Amino acid sequence: CYIAAADMEDLVSCLVCLEGIFGTSCSKDASLAPSHHSPLLQILHCNALQSWSLLLTICPSTQIKKILDEHLPKLPLMLSSDNVNLRIVAGETIALLFELARDIEEDFFYEDTDLLCTKLKALATDSNKYRAKTDRRKQRSIFRDVLHYIENGECHEETIKFGLECMYVDSWARRRTYNAFKEALGSGVRHHLQNNELLRDTFELGPPLVLDAATVKASKISRFEKHLYNSAAFKARTKARSRVRDKRADVL
């Protein structure tokens, strides 16, 4: 659906279907709390939520507004799951929703932010011995990033190098998209970033590079120049993403 769906009805239909799968993990009904779910069901909910959040990155702003109203108050309930991966995906999805909301409305305000940040701080400093050490370390790292973004609006930046190029993963939307392709392509993701036109178009990398030795030498620039270029590119992507959402909203 992320790649092939050209009809907004298909996109919305997929979102609703996925919501129906993970919805019980963010229900206020105590009997449906994540802690009561089997490990296999939690894995299913985790995969459904990941797919749902990926589709959010291509949603028009009108649809995002509806999703914010309906799901932002519910998703924090998933942070109490005893499945570390479900907790992490829920946290990343909350950060993504905040990012999409701020793309639409720069001074976006969520009335339960203080309560949410309290939960995020607890997960970012979790030292419970009954959790596996690797799980605690992974959880603390990601929830520190989530909390920092919610409080300060700054996203942790990751640099992906492939061949002579590099790509900055500098937003939650870009992070979700990159991770989706990485999970599907595994160790081959960097090769595809170099040569796959679909991925290069998705990440706005332009056509695949064909360089001779002289061009390679001339193309080397300083890390500071790369940072300035990518910062400008990030701002351009944000504006372009907003324009695309507005066009999709007109279609709806």
TrEMBL record:
PANTHER family: INTERFERON-RELATED DEVELOPMENTAL REGULATOR, INTERFERON-RELATED DEVELOPMENTAL REGULATOR 2. InterPro entries: IFRD, Interferon-rel_develop_reg_C, Interferon-rel_develop_reg_N. It comes from the Eukaryota. Residues 196-249 form the Interferon-related developmental regulator C-terminal domain. This is Interferon-related developmental regulator N-terminal domain-containing protein. Residues 1-151 form the Interferon-related developmental regulator N-terminal domain.
